[in-house]
Amino acid sequence: MPISGATSFITCTSRVAQPVKSASLSNLQIAPKILNFSHATVVLRKSNKVTSANAGKFVHLEGKDFYVKNAGARPFASREVIAAEIYQLFAPAPEQFLADHCHFFMENADSQDVYIASKVVDYQDFGDWMTEADSADALKRQYSDFPDKSFAAFKCNANEAKELCAELESLRKENPGDWWKSGTNFFLAPEMRTPNRALVDQYRPKASRLDIIMKEQFSLLPEQHRKEMQVHLAVSQLIGDWDPINAFYRNMGIVTEAAGAQHVMRLDFGSCFDVGFNYEPKETGFQTAINQRPAVFPELVHAFAEKNAVFSKKLPQLVEELDQLPYADYAKSIAGKTEWAESTRFQIAYRCALLKRQAHNQNVIGDIIRRVLIDEAELGPGLKTKEVLIETMNARIDALINEQCGGNDRIYDWERHNPELSYSIREDLSSKLAVDLQPLNNALWTHPVSPKIGSEINQNRSGGDLFF
Ligand SMILES: Nc1ncnc2c1ncn2[C@@H]1O[C@H](COP(=O)(O)OP(=O)(O)O)[C@@H](O)[C@H]1O
Ligand SMILES: [Mg+2]
């Protein structure tokens, strides 16, 4: 058993990133690394129902499994990889790489097209995991105090949700040209956007019922899982992600560690920073966000406003202010309790403060953006330049530390009053950055830092990750 639930959550990724001990200017010169996937072989998997118009492929390369997907033109694909790399500094997410030479296994690909290869983990989207009655058994194994009443209710809901999902899937399969019509998609010819009313009337009540059940499932989860979900939502907001959990309850789910423990994980960072949906910048992507939602889906309670379709220096109050999310109804169901929000913000701000100090105030995050973002020459209209993107991220981080947490002194106090949690955050971040992070408070520098950190890092390095 870990010292605390929080410890287990934040240490569940094993990644050791490239050392960023000093965010040196030489990184400016490094071209983004694009891995050659010409020797990858396709792996057939019956699990992982991918509900995406743009389904990718599971492949095997040099002893590792990847999910490879099309992620748009280079500026978009590189942003997605950057978002994943930054995200991992805060919460569990799979490692992602840019990949080329995928034309051997991706249809209509050119050898130079850039794809995203995401290292496969033992992960299930909530849309699948919550509809499996067995998930309740896993919860009971992990949390012996998981109440019998919740256990029984989870199983019952899972069975009903599974049936509903199957019925909805059949309706989509039976109406492949109709179910996705939005009625407001003005890019389509009028005859293409007229929703099939009979289908809407049949589909919507079932989809509404599914939303109610899923909401209940989230609320039945043990507090530790719900707090992890809240951290994920907050980190997603920090990087301006529009899609932390989608209408099929995908992009967030449960990862099972080798030792069997389960934690919340996020993946799919295609709508982060200045990018909206469908490889459009957020600032011109309002209509797409509104119009792409099919008429068969239940109407949203929380309407999205055009003025919120931005990625700006103004950071919404994490976890509590969800206006900048096009589909805030879904985010609400993973937001957890308001009374946990302050702690969540401090945990994230604490990581930001450690990152800032580690890079001598130059900013580890800026360094990742500089290293991975592809050619400004290829910038699409409406996308921010590298330096503006970095400035915007820095401003959002400062807003979190200063406006939402009350400034550096309060973060120092938080560290002092939360020795276990702050220690485990430092341990987690130390392993990810391959450095030995000390407490922010000088007075705490005598607090023992795990003597294992250095040796673990060396072992991982000499283990020879193929890609670093
Ligand atoms: N690294 C991974 N490990 C396990 N499953 C993955 C991984 N990456 C993606 N998947 C599965 O594939 C689905 C689609 O991937 P995602 O990145 O969300 O693509 P899309 O942009 O098409 O939604 C995910 O919801 C998840 O079920
Ligand atoms: Mg997705």
User: How many strands, which pairing sense, and closed or not: the largest β-sheet?
Assistant: 6 strands, mixed
Question: Could you give the order of the helices and strands?
Answer: HEEEEHEEEHHHHHHEEHHHHHHHH
Parts with pLDDT < 50 across at least 5 consecutive residues: 1-8, 10-29, 446-468
Give the fraction of residues assigned to helices. 40-55%
Number of discrete helical segments: 16
Shape: globular
Topology at a glance:
Elements: H1 5-10, E1 34-36, E2 41-42, E3 57-61, E4 64-70, H2 74-88, E5 96-100, E6 115-119, E7 123-125, H3 126-129, H4 134-142, H5 148-174, H6 190-193, H7 197-220, H8 223-238, E8 252-256, E9 262-266, H9 286-291, H10 328-333, H11 341-358, H12 364-372, H13 386-404, H14 408-417, H15 419-433, H16 452-462
Parallel strand pairs: 1-5
Antiparallel strand pairs: 2-3, 3-4, 4-6, 5-6, 7-8, 8-9
The structure holds adenosine-5'-diphosphate and magnesium ion.
What does this protein look like?
The two termini are 32 Å apart. The protein is of the alpha+beta class and 468 residues long. The protein has helices spanning 5-10, 74-88, 126-129, 134-142, 148-174, 190-193, 197-220, 223-238, 286-291, 328-333, 341-358, 364-372, 386-404, 408-417, 419-433, 452-462, and strands spanning 34-36, 41-42, 57-61, 64-70, 96-100, 115-119, 123-125, 252-256, 262-266. Mean pLDDT is 86; it is low at 1-8, 10-29 and 446-468. Strands 1-5-6-4-3-2 form a six-stranded mixed sheet. A three-stranded antiparallel sheet has the order 7-8-9. The structure holds adenosine-5'-diphosphate and magnesium ion. Adenosine-5'-diphosphate is lined by residues 48, 50, 52, 54, 67, 69, 94, 118-121, 123, 125, 250-251, 267-268, 270.
